Amino acid sequence: MSKEIFKKLQEAVIEGEEDVAVAAAKEAVAAGLNASEAIVEGLAKGMETVGRYFEEQRYFLTEVILSSYAFQAGVKVLKSHIKVEAESPGILVLGTVLGDTHDIGKNIVGIMFGAAGYEVHDLGRDVAPEAFVQKVRETKANILGLSALMTTSMDSMKTVIKLLKEEGLRDSVKVIIGGAPVSTRYAQQIGADGYATNAVHAIRVARELLENKIVLAEAN
Amino acid sequence: MQFSLKRRLLSVLENMPVDRPPVICPGGMMNSAIVDIMKSSGVTFPEAHHDSELIAKLAWEVHRQTGFENFGIPFCMTVEAEVFGSTINYGSLTCEPKIAKEIFPDLASVEFQPVEELLRNGRILTVAKAAKRLAQDYPDVPVVATLTGPISLAASIVDPMKFLASLRKKPEQTHKLLDYVTRFLIGFSDLLTQHGVTVIAIADPTATGEILGPAMFKEYAVRYLKQVVVGVHKAGVPAIVHICGNVSPVKSLLPEIGADAISLDAIINLSKLKAEFPTLITMGNVSTYLLEFGPTDKIREATMRLVKEGVDIIAPACGLSTTSSVENIKAMTAVVADTDVISKGGENYV
Q1: Which A residues in the span 132-191 are in contact with B, Cβ-Cβ below 8 Å?
Q2: Which terminus of chain A is more solvent-facing, meaning fewer CB atoms within 10 Å of its CB: N or C?
Q3: B287 in the Ramachandran plot: left (φ > 0), alpha (ψ -120 to 50) or beta?
Q4: Contacts of B208 (CB under 8 A, 6+ apart)
Q5: Structure confidence at residue A99 (pLDDT)
Q6: Does the pTM exceed 0.90?
Q7: B94 at the A interface (CB within 8 A)?
Q8: Of the candidates B28, B231, B230, B233, which has an alpha carbon nearest to the alpha carbon of residue B146?
Q9: Is the Cβ of B245 closer than 8 Å to some Cβ of chain A?
Q10: Above pLDDT 90, what percent of chain B?
Q11: How many domains is chain B partitioned into structurally?
């Protein structure tokens, strides 16, 4: 019974069907299933598949957006029924940097991290460096995700890192950058901890950073 | 045969032989008004976005100081979204205007207005008047006006996530919206052409293969870009289409758009693309990262490689950073202008 409902939740997310996800989530509640388990084994598993399809270029951003809407709709139903919160792998503060309003990719990153169990604080777009730093302090985040889609705005990432250092917060948070104009090389130049090419990759980078598996050398 | 700057660009777009490729920067998304030039000319952002005389003066200064062989206007990609009612943040000296907030939260709330009315709004006439001024004063220099492509424009007036989600789920509403913005873009092209614009460029950065995938790219991007191109042709001028990012998943669809030249990002190897699709006239694609950070010898090298590979029009690959230096841009344009290659009938370059 439970397996069947988990399967329905997965399928709804993979197909990007919001209504189906909501119906399946309600079914899970009615059947008395553990809500956290329904999220992890159902909705989040579906999102994992979506992530894999995206990497295989079977899915593109339009499909991922639909799936993430279905995921969020399902989570909304189940969330109020969670009895004990599962342990979160981390706290993510996320945003598109100052001077930049491109946020499609950044939104997907936020949703994917949510699906992977992270506590996500998405500050939106055109975010001032001070706002990032303040939020990191306030939430005790251990991952900071910075996105930029313009060569004109990417410099702001450097300012954020500088400010983290000045505020004595740099060692408490791993900084991951992403977006078309940036690269591993740029991450090294500005002293970020990691660079990710897309949302799925970002989750991997975050996990490896939190387990201290990768270290980017500081460029001279 | 001696080519004026205008004749050379038009010849390339007509697939006629020329002595060497033109080197241009079309404006709009690929704005070329950099801080160095604004400071030296005293014509600065954000004021220069609002006044036709300032637009014309700045475009002329860019042309004179950088060696780009065209005038490229406007200097942002918010002119269109503004007339539909989206909130614009006009930016600063170093930062181009951007959409602060799309006017419609979703497709269902879009209010449709007559195109003729939209064409009276915002900075439409400001841009048109600047074009007229430039075309009258400098008849040998091509005036390129760059428009925001239909997919990007739709995603600038409706919340972009909602818009992208609707591509698969609400095809009817999506087509209605894209038809609307396309009719507007054709009207704008027509107006600009009446004001002396030589070439219309259409930049559609949201219509990438990576965002849309082949199915949606064909269904929406190809269809409406093609309609804009047909409209531009009816207005009597050639059309260049710029697509951002990695077009590999959708490259076989590019010829269908019918553009007179296709401009692509730095990630694409243009000579390989040309070999695969011989009918395409290619434009691009000097890395804007390289143009911002140099060094100049690397810029010269990269530009020369594109010329040697037979890229038809040399241009930056994407939007220039406003903090790029005149020196770096001149390194790019000078290499092309110095190319001493003789045209042979039918073959463009050796």
Answers
A1: 150-153, 180-181
A2: C
A3: beta
A4: B243, B244, B245, B246, B247
A5: 81
A6: no
A7: yes
A8: B28
A9: yes
A10: 87
A11: 1
Q: Is the pLDDT of residue B21 over 50?
A: yes
Segment B21-40 mean pLDDT:
95
Does the pLDDT of residue B349 top 60, yes or no?
no
Q: What is the pLDDT averaged over residues A11-20? A: 96
Q: Is B46 on the interface with A (CB under 8 A)?
A: no
CATH of domain A91-210: 3.40.50.280
- Answer for the pair B103, B153: CB distance below 8 angstroms, yes or no: no
Mean per-residue pLDDT, B69-79? 96
State whether A62 and B292 contact (CB < 8 Å): no
**Contact between B210 and A126 using a beta-carbon 8 Å cutoff:** no
CATH code linked to domain A2-79: 1.10.1240.10
Shortest alpha-carbon distance between residue B334 and chain A (Å): 23
CATH number at B76 reads: 3.20.20.210
CB distance from B93 to chain A under 8 Å? Answer: no
CA pair distance B57, B138, nearest whole angstrom: 12
ipTM for the predicted complex:
0.80
Residue B87: pLDDT band with limits 50, 70, 90 = very high
Structure-model confidence comparison of residues B1 and B323, the more confident one: B323
Chain A hits for B164, CB-CB cut-off 8 Å, are: 61-62, 65, 104
A152 and B168: CB-CB below 8 Å?
no
B110-119: Cβ within 8 A, 24+ apart: B110/B157, B110/B158, B110/B177, B110/B180, B112/B180, B115/B183, B115/B184, B115/B187, B116/B187, B118/B83, B118/B84, B118/B184, B118/B187, B119/B83, B119/B184, B119/B187, B119/B188, B119/B191
| pLDDT tens for each residue of A83-124 | 766 678 899 999 999 988 788 889 889 988 988 889 999 999
- Does the distance separating the beta carbons of A65 and B289 come in below 8 Å? no
Range of the domain at B125: 5-338
Token output for A97: 């940097």
pLDDT at A87: 76
Same fold, A2-79 and A91-210: no
Residue in chain B nearest A99 by alpha carbon: B95
B249, B208 contact by CB (below 8 A): no
Phi-psi region of A179 (alpha: psi -120 to 50; beta: other; left: phi over 0): left
Contact predicate A28/A42, CB 8 Å: yes
Give the residue-averaged pLDDT of B13-29: 95
Distance CA A69, CA B54 (A): 45
Query: Per the domain annotation, does B153 fall within a domain?
Result: yes
pLDDT in tens, B315-331: 999 888 888 999 999 99
- Using alpha carbons, select from A217, A173, A152 the residue that is nearest to residue A191: A217
State how far residue B307 is from chain A, nearest Cα, in angstroms. 24
CB contact under 8 A, A62 and B164: yes
Q: In whole angstroms, give the CA distance from residue A54 to residue B193.
A: 42
